[in-house]
Design a protein that fits this description.
It contains 2 helices and 39 strands. With 412 residues, the protein is mainly β. The strands form 5 sheets. The protein has a 13-stranded parallel β-sheet with strand order 1-2-5-8-11-15-19-22-25-28-31-34-36. A 12-stranded parallel β-sheet has the order 3-6-9-12-16-20-23-26-29-32-35-37, with no helix packed on it. Strands 4-7-10-13-17-21-24-27-30-33 form a 10-stranded parallel β-sheet. The chain is elongated.
Length: 412
């Protein structure tokens, strides 16, 4: 049994290459003494507002944007000394973005009061959040769950000590709003502690929204580090690749609530449940069109890669290096709806150079190097977690060759 062709990968990768173009409008520079919100909403399409270091008074609703290829830009003059947007109230968010084609770059947010978000997006196209820092937020750092939108990019941001889910995209029912062309990459999330009954995700992408989630480092979350809910349209394929996840205190590192999705070249360690778990969320029957390939999972309490006994219709698990603690399964058993190929159980075998120090380099002679199943398909990764070219046959797991410890820091 094979998953359907992953035609949507091409679409989402093309969106990943379409970053905001350089602004051709005027550049205005201000300091903390200026009225930030008035200056933002005085910008013409394609203008940029440059903020000197210091503290600026929030909140603000951004109502004027740019156009395709010419976004309105609000950015730091010096990313090494970020301007901080300060809001101590509880009746608004720090920034609400209601305009299309807006880029926010290099700003700092937080702390905020309970349920006060950093950036809440009401736009429909072309919003980019880049190189920002969110610390001590009482709400969500970046959220878009009001209107259907396309072409949102969230990259190279740092989120620390969040009391709410770090990033939230799409609508729960998959009907009121959906996002397409969403790219979430190279973000660093450390410590999410949402109060009960909230879950406290690192990154979640809701039903029928489609995303490319790659090269993120997510550590110490309450709920899943990453969760995608899938889509009813089998051509709407999300991709989760080259992420490092460590230490979900109540869940798995990655949770797949539905397909179609490609999950490849991730490293997921030391979580309460599995490193990577499939879950028939809401009994929607969407666990189909799923590829789980070339992942490394280690030291997760309830298992390595975990699937439910029922509800999986079409999943391929191939070339994964999976370790589990004593008494927990590293890999699921073969059952209807699940195809296994080229996976290696590392529970009783020393597969990695020094996993306790986060060095998951394949150990020579351990049965990983050159031991992978050779498959053909658009989902097959040509490179590994670090971008090294895959061999033929490939090495099992996320790393093709020795690489050293994975740092707890933003991925370069």
């Amino acid at each position: 049994m094979r998953p359907r062709p992953v035609v949507g990968v091409v679409v989402v990768v093309l969106w990943a290459l379409l970053g905001p173009a350089a602004s051709e409008g005027a550049s205005v520079e201000i300091g903390p003494e200026a009225s930030l919100c008035a200056e933002i909403n005085a910008l013409a399409p394609g203008d940029e507002l440059v903020l000197r270091p210091g503290e600026y008074a929030g909140p603000c609703t951004i109502r004027r944007g740019g156009g395709p290829g010419a976004p309105t830009v609000i950015r730091a003059k010096d990313v090494a000394d970020r301007p901080r947007i300060v809001y101590g109230g509880a009746t608004a968010n720090v920034l609400d973005v209601e305009a299309d084609h807006v880029t926010i770059r290099g700003l700092a947010f937080g702390p905020t009061q309970r349920s006060v978000d950093g950036i809440r997006i009401f736009s429909r196209a072309g919003v980019s959040i880049e190189d920002c820092e969110f610390s001590g937020l009482g709400g969500i750092a970046v959220v878009a769950n009001h209107f259907s939108g396309r072409g949102f990019i969230v990259r190279r941001n740092v989120i620390r000590d969040s009391r709410g889910t770090a990033m939230y995209f799409g609508c729960q029912d998959g009907a009121w709003c959906t996002l397409t062309g969403l790219v979430v990459e190279r973000n660093y999330i450390h410590t999410v502690r949402a109060p009960d009954p909230e879950i406290g995700y690192g990154i979640q992408v809701k039903l029928n929204s489609v995303a490319l989630i790659r090269d993120n480092v997510i550590v110490d979350t309450k709920g899943p580090g990453i969760m995608v809910y899938g889509a009813r349209d089998l051509s709407a394929v999300s991709v989760v690749e080259r992420n490092f996840l460590m230490g979900s205190i109540r869940s798995s590192g990655i949770v797949i609530g539905g397909g179609p999705v490609v999950v490849r070249n991730n490293v997921a360690v030391a979580s309460h449940e599995g490193g990577l778990g499939l879950e028939d969320y809401g009994r929607r029957g969407l666990l189909r069109g799923i590829v789980v390939a070339h992942n490394t999972v280690f030291g997760n309490q309830a298992g390595g890669i975990v699937t439910p006994e029922n509800g999986v219709r079409d999943a391929l698990l191939v070339n994964n290096a999976a370790h589990a603690r004593v008494g927990a399964p590293a890999l699921p058993p073969a059952r209807n709806g699940v195809e296994l190929a080229g996976n290696v159980d590392c529970s009783l075998l020393a597969c990695f150079t020094n996993p306790e120090a986060r060095d998951f380099s394949p150990l020579l002679g351990a049965g990983l190097v050159g031991a992978g199943a050779v498959r053909v398909g658009p989902w097959v990764p040509g490179a590994d977690y670090l971008g090294n070219r895959r061999g033929i046959p490939p090495t099992v797991g996320a790393l093709e060759r020795p690489a050293g410890p994975i740092p707890l820091a933003p991925k370069p």
